[in-house]
Specification:
By secondary structure, this protein is of the alpha+beta class. The chain is 54% helix and 19% strand. It has 3 domains: 97 residues, Orthogonal Bundle (Helix Hairpins), CATH 1.10.287.1260; 49 residues, SH3 type barrels; 81 residues, Alpha-Beta Plaits (2-Layer Sandwich).
């Protein structure tokens, strides 16, 4: 019995020392990982990289270092690394099948990093949502919608569907269609629309504003007005121009038609 207790104490001491060593390695390792990631984000290399690449790289390194720390702790606890590697390899197939979506998201994140279809701060339309990219993670992209909602979209979905990036180019074209009644002077209408376009300070001189009669509708003459603006002034110019043209046409007595339906009643 005495020998049993002696053996039990030796085992407990050995296991206790391993647990203490593993705990110390975990605490120190976590501090080191945080320091490394923080240094990468705020260091010279992190500042040289664009925010999208820097954030993605830091997240990837953070995950890789924690995996390395876990393997180290398992080794300290006395578990043979060969057995751990074998177990991981055996479970890899099952995990891969169970995490197909996550792996596709990881692949999508890598594709975003390589091809740069958008960057942090861009206004994009993807996954059925339109918003400003606030974060690109290893697995997900976060959008801030105009109504202040936050949407998290898997990177696999982002790369599997079409992406419209409204911030990719410095200038955008504003397309507006105005309806005027039949019998109106086409030349006069075009001149008035172009005049209102040139009054907008944000409208660019080059490319020059364009306006023509583009369709003879069922109840109206349809004029298309196109102007070029800086992308950050798109909505302001669109709304201001809509209001200015409507007031101008109303002031000069030009009829703005609306859809009408004539009904004829016959008595038997």
């Amino acid at each position: 019995m005495e020998e049993f207790w002696k053996w039990l104490l030796e085992v407990a001491r050995d296991v206790g020392l391993k647990l203490i060593a593993a705990l110390l390695v975990f605490l120190i390792g976590r501090m080191v990982i945080r320091a490394v990631v923080k240094s990468l984000r705020r260091g010279k290399m992190g500042k040289r990289l664009e925010p999208t690449v820097s954030h993605f790289l830091c997240n990837f390194i953070n995950i890789a270092l924690y995996i390395l720390l876990t393997v180290t702790i398992v080794g300290i606890l006395g578990v043979p690394l060969a057995s751990v590697v074998t177990a991981i390899a055996s479970a890899g197939v099952a995990i891969g099948l169970a995490l197909q979506g996550s792996l596709s998201n990881l692949a999508g994140g890598i594709m975003i990093l390589i091809f740069h279809p958008f960057r942090v701060g861009d206004f994009v339309e993807a996954g059925g949502f339109s918003g400003t990219v606030s974060d690109i993670d290893v697995f997900y992209t976060v959008l801030n919608l105009p109504d202040n909602r936050v949407v998290t979209i898997p990177n696999g979905v982002m790369m599997a569907e079409s992406i419209t990036n409204y911030s990719a180019n410095e200038i955008r074209r504003v397309d507006l269609v105005f309806h005027v009644a039949y019998g109106s002077d086409v030349g006069a209408v075009v001149a008035r629309l172009l005049e209102e376009a040139t009054k907008q300070e944000a409208v660019l001189k080059e490319p020059a504003p364009f306006c023509r009669l583009t369709e003879q509708g069922e109840s109206s003459l349809d004029f298309t007005l196109r102007v070029w603006v800086k992308q950050e002034q798109y909505w302001q110019v669109k709304f201001d121009l809509l209001e200015a043209v409507h007031q101008r046409l109303y002031k000069e007595g030009l009829e703005i038609p609306f859809r009408q339906l004539d009904v004829h009643l016959k008595r038997n």
